[in-house]
Protein 1
Amino acid sequence: MKNVTDSFVSLGHWPSAGSFGFNTDILATNLINLSVVLGVLVFFGKGVLSDLLDNRKQRILNTIRNSEELRGGAIEQLEKARTRLRKVQMEADQFRVNGYSEIERERFNFINSTSKTLKQLENYKNETIHFEQQRAINQVRQRVFQQALQGALGTLSSCLNNELHLRTIRANIGILGAITD
């Protein structure tokens, strides 16, 4: 540190004009060279640096402005997309509700239709059973009547002789004649 202060102190007085040489004190010469270079740079580079900084500032401001415009456009598009999404969600909910109610209505109609069909089938079954019962009863009646008739004819044939047979026929003809008159 003492060398540095000595070099600044020695700057106050110059050696005599006859002696010319190199200053080997690195700290002293570097500080002087640096201050000269900085002074020249500040003096001559001030305008160039100022222009460069102004251009850079304008580019940054333009970029910020463009970014703000893009941000505004993006926000507007986002709001439009959100509005569209809400609209689509409402339509989807409406379709879902309509679909569910349509499904319920179709289910109800199907159940009613099936119930009516089952009732009709039950009625047809009952009618068929009744018809078959009546047919079976009629067949049994016919057989019983035929057997009874055959039995009666057999009994009459064995019990009746010709004379009794003729009297019965005349009596029946007389009864039939009295009914028709």
Protein 2
Amino acid sequence: PGLHIFSIALALEVSVGKTNTVTALNGSNVLLPCVFTTCIGFQDLVFTWYFNSTEMIYHGKIKSKASEPFLVGRNPRVEFVGSTTGKDNNISIVLNEVDFSDAGKYTCHVKNPKEKNAQHNASIFLTVVHKMVETDNTVTLIIVGVVGGLIGLLILFMLECLVSSSGNDNTENGLPASKAEQKAAPKA
């Protein structure tokens, strides 16, 4: 009859990278990244990619760290490009010949039976565009150049003032001249 406290630590994590958005050109192929980590390893791990949370577009299974995933089911335009036998447990896919109807949310879902069927997922949002727009940074570069130049001139002006004030002749203030200008009296 003692008090028992159990803590549950989720060792399974799933990630789609540093950004959860990707933009693709209409008619191109796009990589949808996904990696997973697990502290205690995996066996018979199942991963599934969903489009807009409901449509299954890729379903795979991985027996162990020593084996590559095998296909359970997929959309014909989806291709598995990951690998789980190397350092990263990469379960990324490529969506071929994207069109505007492919824009939306893609979710990478992982279930690990070795962790008492722990489940985790991560989502990435795909935007499909007619043409890629190049960003013009000319104005930004001009502003940075002007500000940098002004800062440089200010520093130069301050240094000039500092140097010229350190050699001032203080005789007008009733003080002897600076030591640099004082000369020793000639000995006779």
